Amino acid sequence: MVSIRLLRYSFLLGLAVTAAAYGQSPNYGSPQPPPQDYDDRGHDDRGYDDHGYDDHDYDATPSPRGEVGFFYEELSPYGDWVLTRDHGWAWFPRTVRADWRPYSDGRWVVTDYGWTWASNEPFGWATYHYGRWAWDSRFGWLWVPGTIWGPAWVSWQYGGGYVGWAPLPPTVGFEIGVGIRLGGFNLSLGIRPDTYSFVRERSLLEPRLSGYLEPRARNVTIIHETTNITNYTFVENHVVNRGVEVRRIEQITGRRVRERRINQTATAPRNRT
Fold this sequence. Notes:
By secondary structure, this protein is α+β, with helices and mostly antiparallel strands. It has six helices and 20 strands. The protein has helices at about 65-70, 70-75, 125, 185-190, 220-225, 245-255, and strands at about 5, 10-15, 15, 35-40, 80-85, 90-95, 105-110, 115-120, 130-135, 140-145, 155-160, 160-165, 175, 180, 195-200, 225-230, 230-235, 240, 260-265, 270. The strands form nine sheets. It has a four-stranded antiparallel β-sheet with strand order 15-12-11-16. Strand 7 (about 105-110) and strand 8 form a beta hairpin. It starts with a strand and ends with a strand. About 40% of the residues are buried.
């Protein structure tokens, strides 16, 4: 029997690094291709509710392999799949620290798609460019697959000398040709403060931001000093993550931000027996 597995999309930025967007499509076996490789050029639980799990014998349930397509094989070495009532099949990383959060191990780069997350994690090519993240009290952070690629899907906070970002929950959707869909979700009130990663604005361009994150205990205070500046637009058939103004970061850091261009990469399927 011949099975089809799409090649993993790699994003090269010196090292293999990447970013994510959420497509509310049931056909996870046919994700929208990523545009491509980098070249050298208060605790409100809305949106992060705990999820219920089916108590069925999992041997009798459909396999995630058929539900999430090539994501199943590509991510299984790094985590486990669980069937949720709210989101269907979701994945969580297996070997992260208890205080780990998405979008914390990597860096921000500016591309023609706006602020783009370049992950240091082997699963980042998928989990920060497709789908959404949801918090669960039993498993921690769960990644819900999606089919639309984007540079990074986060809520931005800015002000008082700080920049912060948190993963957008599955509540927040995106419609091609229209843009981000909140569906009544309030980004300022609905995202828990402890899910944010904050750095001083002068550190936003550092190559490994995990070493510059403010203590999470300060997040509530920092959020009161910042404003939500989340801004996604749809330009020439692709998603652009605006976030904090690049010129402002250049002024604060005294460094010129080089915009990197995203080029086409191989996306052909590979057959194997």
